[in-house]
């Protein structure tokens, strides 16, 4: 009973703070409203017996939101993010899309003939969830992840405005790198 | 004489914040005493300074800044203490723990990440330049603190083959982890100090930016932040005990008392370091963290993993 109440309270908090993201008029508030929503979801995951996944969700999401706030403020240069501002744009179309998606998913959840439960939940839910998601696709993941990782590295190397040739000269022969600000190791 | 760790009734949770506050007070008292000694004033008056400070801040009127984001400001100010209390839930006091989580080590780490947000919120809420600079100064280095800390935290977990704090304590039955993973211990201590924005890492509240995120907080808010800082420091010191210092293991005294004694010693070292080590320049620290500290932490995990697999 108490667990049910807590679950519904968390569900309400997660949806309400999700709504708050678009209602509030400040970048910082929108960001941290989203963080609150994720924290509520993380606790619900813990309640479902997925301790590791729930807590790691909170960890990752709070970290991401903290960094996202910085980037949102940083990139909102022409429209000062330090001032109150509207968090929505293209209002009519986004409302149509949001309501449509909600109706579709909710109808799916309600109308689908869910199968009855067979067997009991596994002892280690996190491990069996990982097995279910990754098990048959391990080979594909092992192939894709190096490619993805290489893509990230390559993207960074290309995009980095201060790569090694900028820092050490065209033939990489400069004694000390040409940096606007030197790091702690004098490099 | 280490006993298996058991989870006690949640009713005891009332005592946990009290104990934490006592540790925070002791830390503040030691800091006051050290300040007084270096200024040539009587040590006893310095040790009592926190009481005077509490009385002063409780009576002080709140300073108000223009267009402050009061909600986020208050969350930031009050949050530090809450996070510190949540941290100690998984720390066993001798044989007793409040929450015997399967993933206690990750829980502690998650609470550390909350601090990223809190210091930035304190800086943001005031709507003033110096406070904002202080908040950004902390957050921009948080990754440099966090990654070495994460690897320092998993090192004992790798050796114990478990993320449960109780298992980590049990794995130190023969040999304390601090002895064969000293690098991880030092990095852990450094990161705890950094996440408390304390001592050499206190640049977010630095004097060069007029107190940074502390510049505009006053009254009860300031009291909560300063207390929360000591509480986070104390919680980190307390977590070093089950992680590296054998938990409640020790001769003669009962396990719970050893936990308290060890925590007090680590906390004293954390507080004292402020008076021994100069401030680390924030603009230069990132490179040191990524090029020296992080590889050192990784090497430590590697060595520990090889030993753990081999044994």
UniProtKB/TrEMBL annotation, chain A:
Which Enzyme Commission numbers does its entry carry?
7.1.1.-
- Provide the primary localization: membrane
Indicate where this protein resides in the cell.
Cell membrane
| Superkingdom of this protein's organism | Bacteria
Query: What catalytic reaction does the record list?
Result: a quinone + NADH + 5 H(+)(in) = a quinol + NAD(+) + 4 H(+)(out)
Is S-adenosyl-L-methionine tagged as a keyword? no
Q: What GO MF terms are annotated?
A: NADH dehydrogenase (ubiquinone) activity; quinone binding
A single GO CC term for this protein reads: plasma membrane
**Alphabetical list of InterPro entries matching this protein:** NADH_UbQ/plastoQ_OxRdtase_su6, Nuo/plastoQ_OxRdtase_6_NuoJ
Main EC class of this protein?
A: translocase
From the record, give the transmembrane residue ranges.
Answer: 6-24, 31-49, 55-74, 95-116, 138-159
Q: How does it sit in the membrane?
A: Multi-pass membrane protein
Keyword Transmembrane appears in the UniProt entry: yes
UniProtKB keywords: Cell membrane, Membrane, NAD, Quinone, Transmembrane, Transmembrane helix, Ubiquinone
Q: What does this protein do?
A: NDH-1 shuttles electrons from NADH, via FMN and iron-sulfur (Fe-S) centers, to quinones in the respiratory chain. Couples the redox reaction to proton translocation (for every two electrons transferred, four hydrogen ions are translocated across the cytoplasmic membrane), and thus conserves the redox energy in a proton gradient.
Sequence similarity: Belongs to the complex I subunit 6 family.
Q: What is this protein called?
A: NADH-quinone oxidoreductase subunit J
TrEMBL record, chain B:
Statement: the UniProt record of this protein carries the keyword Membrane: yes
- Cite a single Pfam family from the UniProt record: NADHdh
| Keyword entries, A-Z | Membrane, NAD, Transmembrane, Transmembrane helix
A GO CC term assigned to this protein in UniProt: plasma membrane
Name the InterPro entries for this protein: NADH_UbQ_OxRdtase_su1/FPO (IPR001694)
Q: Which GO terms describe its molecular function?
A: NADH dehydrogenase activity
Any single biological process term in GO: aerobic respiration
State the compartments where it is located.
Answer: Cell membrane; Membrane
Q: Where are the transmembrane segments?
A: 12-36, 71-93, 105-126, 138-159, 179-202, 223-244, 256-273, 285-309
Query: How does the protein associate with the membrane?
Result: Multi-pass membrane protein
Family assignment? Belongs to the complex I subunit 1 family.
Q: What is this protein called?
A: NADH dehydrogenase
Q: Organism, per UniProt?
A: Marisediminicola antarctica
């Amino acid at each position: 009973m108490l667990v049910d109440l807590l679950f519904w309270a968390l569900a309400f908090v997660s949806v309400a703070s999700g709504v708050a993201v678009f209602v509030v008029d400040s970048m910082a508030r929108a960001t941290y409203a989203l963080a609150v929503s994720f924290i509520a979801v993380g606790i619900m995951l813990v309640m479902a017996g997925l301790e590791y996944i729930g807590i790691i969700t909170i960890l990752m999401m709070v970290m991401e939101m903290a960094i996202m706030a910085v980037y949102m403020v940083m990139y909102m240069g022409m429209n000062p993010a330090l001032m109150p501002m509207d968090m929505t744009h293209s209002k009519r179309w986004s409302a149509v899309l949001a309501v449509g998606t909600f109706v579709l998913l909710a109808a799916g959840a309600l109308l689908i003939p869910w199968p009855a439960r067979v067997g009991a939940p596994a002892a280690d839910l996190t491990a069996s969830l990982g097995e279910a998601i990754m098990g048959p696709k391990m080979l594909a993941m092992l192939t894709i992840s190096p490619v993805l990782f290489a893509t990230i590295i390559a993207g960074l190397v290309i995009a980095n405005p201060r790569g090694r040739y900028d820092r050490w000269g065209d033939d990489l022969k400069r004694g000390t790198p040409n940096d606007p600000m030197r790091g702690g190791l004098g490099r | 004489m280490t006993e298996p760790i058991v989870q006690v009734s949640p009713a005891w949770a009332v005592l946990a914040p009290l104990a934490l506050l006592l540790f925070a007070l002791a830390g503040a008292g030691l800091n006051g005493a050290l300040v007084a000694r270096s200024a040539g004033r009587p040590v006893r008056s310095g040790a009592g300074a926190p009481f005077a400070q509490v009385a002063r801040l409780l009576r002080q009127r709140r300073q108000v800044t223009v267009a402050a984001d009061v909600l986020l400001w208050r969350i930031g100010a009050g949050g530090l203490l809450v996070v510190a209390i949540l941290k100690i839930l998984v720390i066993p006091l001798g044989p007793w723990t409040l929450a015997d989580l399967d993933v206690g080590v990750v829980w502690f780490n998650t609470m550390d990440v909350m601090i990223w947000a809190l210091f930035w919120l304190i800086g943001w809420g005031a709507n003033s330049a110096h406070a904002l600079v202080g908040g950004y100064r902390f957050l921009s280095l948080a990754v440099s603190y966090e990654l070495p800390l994460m690897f320092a935290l998993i090192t004992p977990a790798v050796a114990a083959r478990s993320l449960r704090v109780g298992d980590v304590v049990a794995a130190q039955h023969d040999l304390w982890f601090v002895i064969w993973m000293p690098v991880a211990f030092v990095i852990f201590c450094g990161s705890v100090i950094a996440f408390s924005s304390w001592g050499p890492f206190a640049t977010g509240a630095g004097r060069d930016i007029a107190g940074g995120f502390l510049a505009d907080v006053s009254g009860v808010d300031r009291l909560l932040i300063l207390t929360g800082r000591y509480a986070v420091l104390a919680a980190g010191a307390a977590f070093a005990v089950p992680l590296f210092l054998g938990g409640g293991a020790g001769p003669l005294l009962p396990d719970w008392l050893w936990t308290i004694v060890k925590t007090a010693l680590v906390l004293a070292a954390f507080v004292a370091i402020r008076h021994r080590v100069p401030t680390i320049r924030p603009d230069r620290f990132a490179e040191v963290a990524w090029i020296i500290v992080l590889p050192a932490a990784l090497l430590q995990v590697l060595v520990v993993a090889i030993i753990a697999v081999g044994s």
